[in-house]
Every structure is written in structure tokens, then in C-alpha cells.
Design brief:
316 residues; mainly alpha
């Protein structure tokens, strides 16, 4: 019952954002649809291929992080798990719901539950950290030309949250100052499990080589993702600054983690709000729909893999 109630709440949040967005762009919907109909399919296909390539990079990153904990899977297996995560993102909370499914199948395959869960969490955090670092560097060089102050505020907010999380993982003494957070979990006998989870994640900090490789791959994947969105804009002749996307996309991706159905509605509203200054509200909305279509195509691949999971020998 609680799961059903949670899913309904997230669906309602997505619906509210979708309705609000449709109301805000009500005068641009026809222009957005015309832009989509005129999409250059070759450029869109290039963008989708780049999206698939970034997925491969993310799979290699995941495999490397798992290897630090002596959890060994092949690159093809990591790629299959990543696509399955894409598929389940459509039905679970926010844009990270598929991570729980990935952790489940990896732990089932390897019989290492704690290591699998912590690796998936760290994989997600490294992705966020790399985005923030890219945004911070972009802010240094492009901050003076930002017209929308909310972009700067959003970047600083994400940077602050990421820095706090990174320090918590790096410094146990600092983490102990937040020990009070565990008090409510004692009633459910979860505090000891959370401590074990934290200790395991903290242990990654001793593997500098593995962490360096993970961050390097993450930077490559993030550049590919931003390039994909640039190509989607290019496919409908949207006037966008490639470099400015490195400032804007971290905020949009962070917002998509807000409880909803895979960020649906929240993400699209972010596209329109932050890109309308460059591309116009109609093309900003069109780009959000093209990105949604790209993500859905990726999740469709994941759905096929999940349906054929026994043939792919995903289950242990």
C-alpha cells in the first residue's frame, strides 16, 4: 500500500509539472510541434548514436567501480545492466530509480549485495560530481555573460550540496557531526546497515587509481551527453551556445532527481526555463521532447533486454 501511495504521489508530481509546463508554453506548442516535424533525422540519429556511446562509457565506469570492491562483471554485462536501469527509471522514483534494479541484478549475479549497492551509489555520485566540476569550470569562464541569475544560483546550490556530500565521504570525523541523522533509523534497525554502507563507500577513497579512472570516464560521458543535447538542438536549427550548455545541464539533471516519474515534467520544465533565453521557448520545449524521445529509445532497448534477460544470462 505504501509503495502504491508513493508511486501515486510521484505520478501526481509529474502530472502537475507537465500541466504547468503545457500552460506556460501554450502559445508555443504549435511552433514546437512544427520544429519537431522539421527535425533533421540524420543529425538526430548522430545525437542518438552519441547517447548510446556515452552509455557504453558509463557501463565501463560502472565495471571499474565494481572491480574496486572485487565485484567482477564483463563490459557487455555492465552495458546490459545499464540499459535495464534506463528501462526501470520510467517506473520508479526520480531519475535514479533504475539504480536499485541494477544493484539487485548485479548482487544476484555476484552474490555481493553490499558491495553492489555501494558501487551503484558511488557510480551515481561520481556522475553528479563530474557534472558539478564541469559546471564550476564553465562558470569561471562564462559566468560574466550569464543573464539569468537563477542559473548561477542553481549552479552554486548544486556545487554546495556536492561538496558537502564529497566531504562526508572523505572525512569520517566530519561525518560523525551528522550522526544524529541516524537516530530515526534506529527504530527500524537500519542504523547499523547504513553505517556499514557508509564505511564501504568511504573505503573507495583509498583506491585513488580506480577513482581517477572513474572520474575521467565520467567527464567523457558528460561531454558526450551535453554534445547529444547540442545535436538535438542543431537538428531543429536551434540557436544555442555549446559552452553554455555545460552551465545549464547540471542544473536540469540535478532537478530531474526530484521525486517524480523519471524526472518527467520536472526535467522538461527545466529545459524550457533555462534554454528559452538561447533557443526561444518553442524550440526549448521541442528540445526537451527530443531528449525525452532519446531517453525513451534507450529505455526501449533496456525493456527488450529485460524481456530476454534469461537469454542474456543476466539472472544468476
Amino acid at each position: 500500500m505504501k509503495k502504491l501511495a508513493g508511486s501515486l504521489i510521484k505520478a501526481c508530481i509529474s502530472l502537475i509539472f507537465i500541466l504547468a509546463l503545457l500552460w506556460l508554453v501554450r502559445n508555443e506548442i504549435d511552433d514546437a510541434l512544427r520544429a519537431i516535424k522539421a527535425t533533421n533525422l540524420f543529425i538526430f540519429a548522430m545525437g542518438f548514436l552519441l547517447y548510446l556511446t556515452s552509455t557504453l562509457i558509463l557501463a565501463i565506469r560502472l565495471r571499474g567501480i565494481l572491480a574496486v570492491q572485487s565485484v567482477h562483471i564483463s563490459i557487455p554485462q555492465a552495458l546490459l545492466f545499464t540499459f535495464i536501469g534506463y528501462f526501470f527509471n520510467n517506473f520508479m522514483p526520480s531519475a535514479v530509480g533504475g539504480d536499485a534494479v541494477k544493484a539487485y541484478y548485479i548482487s544476484k549475479k555476484t552474490n555481493k549485495t553490499l558491495e553492489s549497492v555501494t558501487s551503484i551509489l558511488l557510480d551515481r555520485l561520481i556522475g553528479l560530481f563530474s557534472l558539478v566540476i564541469i559546471a564550476a569550470v564553465a562558470l569561471i569562464f562564462l559566468g560574466h555573460i550569464i543573464d539569468n541569475k537563477n542559473v548561477t544560483i542553481g549552479i552554486y546550490a548544486v556545487m554546495l550540496l556536492s561538496a558537502l556530500t564529497f566531504i562526508l565521504l572523505l572525512n569520517k570525523n566530519f561525518a560523525r557531526k551528522f550522526h544524529f541523522i541516524l537516530v530515526p533509523f534506529k527504530f527500524f534497525n537500519l542504523d547499523s546497515k547504513i553505517k556499514r554502507l557508509y564505511d564501504t563507500m568511504h573505503g573507495y577513497m583509498n583506491h585513488k587509481g580506480g577513482m581517477f579512472q572513474a572520474f575521467a570516464l565520467s567527464f567523457i560521458a558528460q561531454v558526450m551527453t551535453v554534445s547529444t543535447i547540442y545535436l538535438l538542438g542543431l537538428s531543429i536549427s536551434a540557436n544555442m551556445s555549446f559552452l553554455m550548455l555545460f552551465l545549464i545541464m547540471p542544473i536540469i539533471f540535478a532537478a530531474s532527481m526530484f521525486p517524480s516519474l523519471n524526472g518527467l515534467g520536472v526535467r522538461e520544465a527545466g529545459f524550457v526555463y533555462f534554454l528559452k533565453g538561447m533557443a526561444g521557448p518553442d524550440k526549448a520545449f521541442a528540445i526537451s521532447l527530443l531528449w525525452l524521445a532519446t531517453a525513451l529509445l534507450g529505455s526501449f532497448i533496456g525493456g527488450i533486454i529485460y524481456a530476454l534477460r534469461r537469454q542474456f544470462k543476466i539472472e544468476g
